[in-house]
């Protein structure tokens, strides 16, 4: 009975190792993690404050950017403090329920970000192809409905995975070689057949992130078609400039995610710590760089941020 109890208890608790093979480097690895988290937290908070407090920025593009900044804060906060606790205090112990909650928030937020980027591409398409009807189409009511739809889509697609994980019996190793919990990473430790988990996980990725990326590509193809049919060179440059920062954000978001997926599928000879580091790059880099890209490339945000810190300087 004692052995049985011990086994069941050990599988209600898992141990996150951090970055396996680089344990002696954890303190050094924690420095970029900590810096990127502070930048993400301050940058995105500043972006939200500037957009919400300045009525001149209450335009659809900035309101969507505000949603993206909020999602970035959630994504960083859900993962980085946990990683830092492992690096600094070897505090990698995590209960099964907390592990499932963490994965749920990460995946929900990631899919929400993908949805927000798609809507931002749609916003740029309307702004360039139907400039006179822009405010009539993208009303505050519609923006609110879009925000709710993005959240509901990510919630409803990820929610069934909780039950798919809860039905499993974890009887194998309870040491997870990672800094955070993920669906298949956790399911691998079950003694049941996890094919349903694998197929459903694939279905979620294809119907959300992959579909969003394809629709973004289509919207930009339509935008470019419209831009190159503009008569004036000045109008063309202005239209392309408004899309510049959004294209940078898209590359930052989908680039590492695609690269990580490809290395996981085809990089059998790549050491495990590289996979873990790449998975962290997907979560660390976009939240840190999004506010910087928009802050540098968007004149209105830059001016309002400067005005907020230095009110007397015009």
TrEMBL record:
Residues 43-294 form the G-protein coupled receptors family 1 profile domain. The keyword Cell membrane applies. It is a multi-pass membrane protein. Keywords: Cell membrane, G-protein coupled receptor, Membrane, Olfaction, Receptor, Sensory transduction, Transducer, Transmembrane, Transmembrane helix. Belongs to the G-protein coupled receptor 1 family. InterPro entries: GPCR_Rhodpsn, GPCR_Rhodpsn_7TM, Olfact_rcpt, OR51/52/56-like. It comes from the Eukaryota. The keyword Ribonucleoprotein does not apply. GO terms for cellular component: plasma membrane. This is Olfactory receptor. Pfam families: 7tm_4. Putative odorant or sperm cell receptor. Odorant receptor.
